[in-house]
Structures are given as structure tokens and as C-alpha cells.
Amino acid sequence: MAESWVNYAERIGSDLHLELSGPGSRRAALIGALRDAVRSGRLAPGTRLPPYRSLAADLGVARNTVADAYAELVAEGWLTARQGSGTRVAERARPLRSAVPPKAPAPPSPAPPPHARAPHPSRPTPHDLRQGTPDASAFPRSAWLASYRRALHQAPNEVFGPGDPAGRPELRAALATYLARARGVRTEPNRIVICSGFAHALRLLFGSGNGKGGGGRGRGRGEGGIGSGNASGDGRGQILRGPLAVEAYGLPFHRDLLAAVGARTVPLPLDEDGARVDRLSRERAVLLTPAHQFPTGGPLHAERRAAVVDWARARDAVVLEDDYDGEFRYDRKPVGALQSLDPERVILIGSVSKSLSPAVRLGWMVLPERYVDDVLAAKGEREAWASVPDQLALADLIVSGSYDRHVRRMRQRYRGRRDRLVAALAERTPHVEVSGVAAGLHAVLRLPPGTERSAVGAAVRQGVALDGLAEFRHPETDMPAHDGLVVGYATPPEHAYGAALEALCGALASSGARGS
Asked: DSSP per residue over 152-209, as a string?
């Protein structure tokens, strides 16, 4: 009977990364390298080492050199050797503590200043109410695993070779059908390019590309720096250039990314009907969140949707549509994608970061025909971003109906959380206005002028991670500032949500913020 791979791996021991350097013989160098690996914890107690012959072949030394090194370390107590069990790291050979003396304890931190931000995402906080992430505990593990298994079982061998910059045809076909059905998008699979998320899409459109180009044919006009003919064969050309109009409130990360690649952003004011697209002037591109303005909430009014498309046609411009949470609308039917009004003037960008998880690094661009070749050229001949097995798994998840079932289930869950948030605030802080809750994964709590900083500081003291509305305001906008808190109600796991709401209400009460 053939030996199982697990048993075989146990018999031959672990691969070791050892560098035989320093003065002295190869034997001394090997002893020192093994001793350091055990001391530092790289080789954990109980780890089985390779047989003499295997390690000797790996390191290019004589078999007796390895045998002598093992014997000496056994004698010193670093290793153990037993007939039939091979040579292992001794259980008592625990990593030594650092010889560096501990630092003196830091003095107690002063109370957060009034303008303090919520705790940084990398720091654990008791109550995470940051916007932008779904409930990680709700990831559809069983459905994803089933789709992954089916996808790998059915995948042709070519899947495991160099990837297509456009993405797998299975996923592009599945997305074309799904987006048409769920978001009203008008496209074909050959006009969808898979990327690793919204930020990656921006880098491809405004940045310097990735790797060697795919030889785009440059079918666009390239007027004013936005046409397709800009992507060079070495992937260094830009497809779009600034200035780019953006909403006066939006993710600072996106503005910083654009600034880093030399694209200047020009803020558009907002009102109850969304972005003031009538303020567009000489810009040749605009970035909008028309289904649900981020972060203030509310869809772009129908007249303005038509107006921005008319502007793009008249100026030979392009609209970038960030469809970041189009699936999560609670109080009425979903607002269709702006892209459906003119597929040749709108680039729709979406991802699964809200619907599934930001850990699944998959997104898509639905492109006008004139940009397809240049985006592929910017991406390069070899796909280096989006995992091909993950693409196949997502395609299966969509085609099987599991993706729709998950989105519907999460829509109900998040609607329930939204309702609990609104009810808790109405009971505990009735003067705080809640807005932007018809869709999405967050709400905006409107505060009286001058109270945002104290409210954020109070949240920090209560262990609540959230953001002040000012964090999202474009620094160059002339739009009047509004005080508020951006509260993400999707992030906490279900069992922790009640405590998070209690802490939030306590922070608002202690901050002294009162509505008008």
C-alpha cells in the first residue's frame, strides 16, 4: 500500500532554512545555525529534523558532517535522538527570552485630545463601529468551500498557468449576468476586467500600470489625457489623468492614492440630492457614489444622474461609478447603476469587500470599449493581483445562487442592526439626528456645530472605534462643514453588537452633544 503523504512528510522531517556562515568548519557552522534556530524559536520543540543524508544533500555538505552536528547537539540537550523516531528538537529547548533589559513602563497616557480619532484599526478595541467592513463572522464559509472545491475539481489545467489580465472568463461571464440582473448594468464579459478591489482599479486607471504591458491597440482618442492610446507597451502609460472631480465628502484614502500618482482632485459640493454635478467645469472625469453617497448617504437624484451623463457626452469625459454597496438597500428597491444610462461614458467599479469580505481580494471594472485594451496593457500580460482559484470560486458562488442567498441573508441582518441602532439612539439620545440609513452598512449621526471633537474623544474613552465626519471632508472644498459621527453597524459580530450600541450611547451622553 502506498505511503500517505502525511506519513512520508513526517518521516523525512521538515525543510530547514539554514545559513552556514561565519568562521570555522562546516560542522561548526551547522551546529551554530541549528542552535540559533532552536534558540530563536524557528525550530519549535518536537520538530523532527531531516535525516542525515537529506540535510547533507540540501546543504551540500558531507553526511558525516550532519551526523556529527546532530550528535553534539544531542549531547548538549538541544536535540533528542531515539530509535525509530529520528532526531527532534528537545521539548525542554524553549526559546530564550531576549537579553535586552525591559523598557521602563511608559507613563500613563493623557486623556485623548478633543480632536482625537478613534483607535487605529490595527489596535484591538472593545467595540468596533468603524465603517466599511462587513461582519467577518458571517462569511459564508460552507458555501465558499463548496464552490472552491467544485471550481478546482472542474478547472482545466490551464488555470494553474499564467493568468489572463482580463480575469477568468468564467467569472467575467457570471458577473455580466449577475450585474445585469441585480444592478441593471449593460455590458458583455469582454468588457469586464477583474482586479483586486477599488483601490487597484484606481491605480490601474490613473497610475503607472503593473509589469509588462499586453500591447493594447489604443482604440480611443486620448484627448485631454483621458483617451485610451496612453498605455505604452511597457505598462508605464496612464489611462486617465487629473484633474478629477470628486464628492466633497469621500474616503481620504482614495484622495491620497490619487494624489500619490499625480492626479489632482477637485471637490464637488453635496446637498440633499447628492453631488452638485452642475458645478462640473473643465474636469474630464468625475468619481461618484451615485447609489448611496459615501459617507453622507442618499442616492444621486435622477435629474442629476441624467445631467452628469449629458456632461460626459458633451465634454468627451468619463464618469467613474463607485458601486461600493449597491446590494444593501433596505427601504425601497435598489437604485440601478448609473452605468446603464451610457455604458460608453461610465466606468463601473465594484468588489466583494462589503458583500463577502475585504479579505477576498476581488473586484471588477465594467469598461467602455475604448478603455479595455489600455487597461489590459496597464495590467500586464501576467495577472499578478487576483487569485485565479478565488475567481473560479466566486464564479461558482454566483452561478450556483449561493451569492444571492448570502446577500439576501446579510441584507436582512444589516437592516435589523440598522433598526436597533436607530431605536437605541431614539431612546437614549433623542436629540441626535440619524441620516443616510436607507442603504449601506453605516449611518451618520448629525451633531450640533462644535461638538464632533468631543463626541469622538468620548467614544475613544468608551472603547468605541468610529470616525468623525470631518475625516472624510475634502480639504479644498468650500462646502460648509457639518459635525457628525460615521457609525458602521455591520462590523461587530452579532453577540457583541448590543454592548457596542450601549457604549456608543454612553459616549454620546457623556460628550454632552445635543441636537438642535
From this structure: HHH--GGGGSSPPTT--HHHHHHHHHHHHHHH-----GGGEEEESSHHHHHHHHHS--
Please give the mean pLDDT across all residues of the chain. Answer: 83
Does residue 226 contact residue 317 with C-beta atoms inside 8 Å? yes
How many Cα atoms occupy the beta-carbon half-sphere of 108 within 13 Å?
Answer: 2
CB burial string 475-490: b at 16+ within 10 A, e below: eebebeebbbbbbbbb
Residue with cell 449576468: 177
CA separation for the pair 252, 262 (Å, rounded) = 15
- pLDDT tens per residue across span 392-407: 999 999 999 999 999 9
Query: pLDDT band for position 381 (50/70/90)?
Result: low
For 204-253, the DSSP string reads HHHS--SSS-------S--GGG-SGGG--TTS---S--S-EEEESBS-HH
**Is the separation of the CB atoms in 339 and 288 below 8 Å?**
no
Closest by CA to 488, choosing from 294, 282, 227, is: 294
| Main-chain dihedrals φ then ψ at residue 444, nearest 5 degrees | -110, 125
What cell does 92 get?
A: 525542554
> 231 burial class (0-12, 13-18, 19+ CB within 10 angstroms)?
buried
Helices (H) and strands (E) in the chain, counts: 14, 17
Which region among 111-120, 320-329, 343-352, 464-473 has the lowest average model confidence (pLDDT)?
A: 111-120
pTM: predicted TM-score of the whole model, two decimal places: 0.76
Three-state DSSP string of 411-451: HHHHHHHHHHHHHHHHHHCCCCEEECCCECCEEEEECCCCC
Cβ 417 vs Cβ 272: under 8 Å: no
- How many whole angstroms separate alpha carbon 175 and alpha carbon 8? 43
Distance CA 6, CA 10 (A): 6
Residue 126 dihedral angles phi and psi, to the nearest 5°: -65, -35
Q: Is the dihedral of CA 502, 503, 505, 506 positive or negative?
A: positive
DSSP secondary structure, 78-114, as one string: SEEEETTTEEEE-TT-PPPPPSSPPPPPPPPPPPPPT
**Comparing C-alpha atoms, which of 293, 288, 287 is closest to residue 273?**
293
CA pair distance 489, 468, nearest whole angstrom: 15
Could you give phi then psi for residue 15, rounded to 5 degrees? Answer: -65, 140
